[in-house]
Amino acid sequence: MAKHHFGKTDVRYWHEVIFKPTYSKGGKTLCVEHWAARIQWRGRRELFNLRTSNKVAAAAKARDVYTTLVGAGWDEALEKFKPEMARKSVSSVGDFLNELRAHWSGKPKTFEDYCRSLRTILSQIFGVKAGREKFDYTNGGRRAWSDKINRIKLADVTPDKVNRWRIAFVKKAGGDLLKQRRARITCNSLMRQAKSLFAAKLLRHVAVHKPEKLPFDGVVFYKRESMRYHSKVDIEALISDAIRELPQEQLKIFLLATMAGLRRAEIDRLQWDAFQWKEGVIQIETTEHSTPKTSDSAGEVPIDKELATLFQGWHAKATDSFVIEADVEPRPDTSYAHYRAQSHFDALIAWLRSKGVTALKPLHELRKEFGSQLCAKAGIYVASRMLRHADIAITAQHYLDQKERVTFGMGNLLVMPDNVTPMVATGDSTALSARTKRSR
Are 163 and 219 in contact (CB under 8 A)? Predict the structure, then answer.
């Protein structure tokens, strides 16, 4: 009967599929003694020597190989039926990432960000601890830590372990509700980046070290936390203090973030020819030293004429093509976030914290304030365009807080009852005293 009439768990299917491999010797084609089968599972195909010349026994063994593959995966099947190559076939996290890296066509930094998130998760799942040497990129401390994680078997990274990590990660925050919220946001961010390495569009290029079970399959993300920006900054007072107190390079950074909404990387590699003085705009575009965060991040940013005049004055005395002067050369091809003006950024962040800006990312808080001010004055569409977001939904979710409170607007229809003493909004002590006496 035709082989396709039977399922692969039926030994009769394999009776028609197995074969005896041939080879050439002395100009003749010869046949080996034992039967063999080529078996494919989850995009991987292997030749199995069934080690018997009995066709019935060989077909039964081929069926057993297949059912083991389906039930336990490649590692178990190879260990049992092809032990001579089992060790070679056990894919590690490092094997997978190296093969995936060869097919990555995006920004190197994006890929390495995804890898860092995956390693962070795995280090906590498998207890790969490290102190400050984890951040030692010079003397090999970082590499030693990464190598330990790279040796982890990919098959051991299961959805169950990832889910247990997810729960434990937030539990470490204890009973502090604010810390719990931050932990959920961080947890989601780590999982979102790490899971991107297992996207179908990437895995279709992976042939040798493709995972049989995807580590994040079925792992539920925490409900999205509100990322709406709530202004806690007296921006007018902060600008006044900055003008009086900040050194020139830090002041440039502050103004570009606060009054133009530029991102840190955009500020760091901004060059003077990005200023179009007559039009009163800053042009964000791809240069030899930088690429916008996304294609939508490119564009014109209109600036106040007073701000343009101030930067024109600095430009007249500039000794460098970069707006922010620093002694460090740009490194556009690094796989990590490298900033020429890191020392200026650090000093400005310290100054912002001294002024009561307590956000985790004080410099980015200035960009959020820029968006919030624009939204209040010109609406969310203008703010979204000025922030150069890909979608207005991003603007609504992450950055903006209505500055001017809107009320129902019909308070004038209310009549104060005789038995209620009106309170003065400014906290009039006389009215408060009179009401207190009557209540006694």
Answer: yes
Burial call 312-332: b when 16+ CB within 10 Å, e when fewer: eeeeeeeeeebbbbbeeebee
Say how far apart CA 253 and CA 349 lie, in whole Å: 11
Residue 117: what residue type?
A: S
Q: Which residue type does 402 have?
A: Q
Contact 301, 387 (CB under 8 A): no
Residues 293 and 264: their CA atoms lie apart, in Å, by 11
Q: Which residues pair with 28 in a beta bridge?
A: 25
257/401 Cα distance (integer angstroms): 18
- Segment 368-425, tens digit of pLDDT: 888 877 777 777 777 777 777 777 766 666 655 555 555 666 667 666 677 766 665 5
Q: Is the pTM of this model over 0.85?
A: no
Confidence at residue 400, expressed as pLDDT on a 0 to 100 scale: 55
CA distance 401 to 414: 29
| Residue 6 burial by Cβ neighbours in a 10 Å radius (0-12, 13-18, 19+) | middle
Per-residue pLDDT tens digits for 107-137: 888 899 999 999 999 999 999 887 777 777 7
- Answer whether 255's CB lies under 8 Å from 303's CB: no
Which residue reads 């076939």 in tokens?
89
User: Over the stretch 40-63, which tens digit does the pLDDT of each residue have?
Assistant: 887 778 899 999 999 999 999 999
Query: What pLDDT sits at residue 386?
Result: 78
Q: What angle do CA 290, 292, 294 make, to 5 degrees?
A: 145
- Do 75 and 68 form a contact (C-beta atoms < 8 A)? no
Q: Which residues of 336-367 are buried (b: 16+ CB within 10 A; e: fewer)?
A: eebbbbeebbebbbebbeeeebeeeebbebbb
pLDDT tens digits, 140-167 = 788 888 889 999 988 889 999 999 999 9
Q: Which of 113, 213, 112 is nearest to 157 (CA)?
A: 213
E strand or H helix at 28: strand 28-31
Instruction: Report the distance separating Cα 227 and Cα 389, nearest Å.
Output: 15
Per-residue pLDDT of 278-290, as tens digits, reads 898 998 888 877 7
**Which structure tokens are listed for 119?**
């390693």
The pLDDT > 70 percentage for the chain reads 85
